[in-house]
Amino acid sequence: GAVVSQHPSWVICKSGTSVKIECRSLDFQATTMFWYRQFPKQSLMLMATSNEGSKATYEQGVEKDKFLINHASLTLSTLTVTSAHPEDSSFYICSAEGSGGKETQYFGPGTRLLVL
Amino acid sequence: SQKIEQNSEALNIQEGKTATLTCNYTNYSPAYLQWYRQDPGRGPVFLLLIRENEKEKRKERLKVTFDTTLKQSLFHITASQPADSATYLCALGYSTLTFGKGTMLLVSP
């Protein structure tokens, strides 16, 4: 089956630093990837839609200059949290649309970010 | 605004019984409704998708119903097993998904 990986699986950083999270589709090409954020006991909230070769589309309330998304290839999208603050601590999850159509999304295992 | 409600209280059932989880939504008319499983500290795993013109869909021990009049979906796991213990998420949409908070299912031996 389709596999999506994320790296790193967890990261601890100091306030003010930037953190890059990678999302890779390992055995299929994904023209569209999505980035979600999930706080404890809350639902996954879509942050942005990432399309290969074009600018990401951000959801309302998500700062595009703070959460930089790059989808440089059909198998890789990156999310960079710039100048991270403690309130950015969360579980970040990416997903990729299956190559056979848009009916199924494959999710990565998530990245736990803790900003001190 | 769109609102998705899933029972926030955990559902505790005994092994072998049928678990039924509910997803209600308002201010939305989705063409698709999906169910995912999420284990602690992990990303969601796709289980089933049902379209608005489908009333019921099955996959092995799983069954999903979709009532667009009631704006409700029911998710059933028959012959439940301890390994089914997880949080189950309801999501509306086709490509861009809107998730509920999920319901935790605990199946005891």
Written description of the protein model:
The complex is a heterodimer of chains A (116) and B (109). Chain A is mainly beta and 116 residues long. Helices cover 0% and strands 52% of the residues of chain A. In chain A, the strands form two sheets. In chain A, strands 2, 4, 5, 6, 9, 10 and 11 form a seven-stranded mixed beta sheet that branches. In chain A, strands 1-3-8-7 form a four-stranded antiparallel beta sheet, with no helix packed on it. The radius of gyration of chain A is 13 Å and the shape is globular. The mean pLDDT of chain A is 92. The mean pLDDT of chain B is 94. Chain B is globular. By secondary structure, chain B is mainly beta.
Which protein chains make the most extensive interface, counting residues with beta carbons within 8 Å of the other chain's beta carbons? A-B, 26 and 20 residues
Radius of gyration of chain A: 13 Å
Characterize the biggest β-sheet of chain B: 6 strands, mixed
What sequence of helices (H) and strands (E) makes up the elements of chain B? EEEEEEEEEEE
Total beta-strand segments of chain A: 11
Please provide the ordered H/E string of secondary-structure elements of chain A: EEEEEEEEEEE
Give the DSSP E fraction of chain B (strand runs of 2 or more residues): over 45%
How big is the Rg of chain B?
Answer: 13 Å
Summing up helix and strand content along with how strands pair, one would put the structural category of chain B as mainly beta
Q: Bin the strand percentage of chain A.
A: over 45%
Binned, the helix content of chain A reads under 10%
* Overall geometric form of chain B: globular
Shape of chain A: globular
Number of helices of chain B: 0
Please count the beta strands of chain B (DSSP E, at least 2 residues each).
Answer: 11
Number of helices of chain A: 0
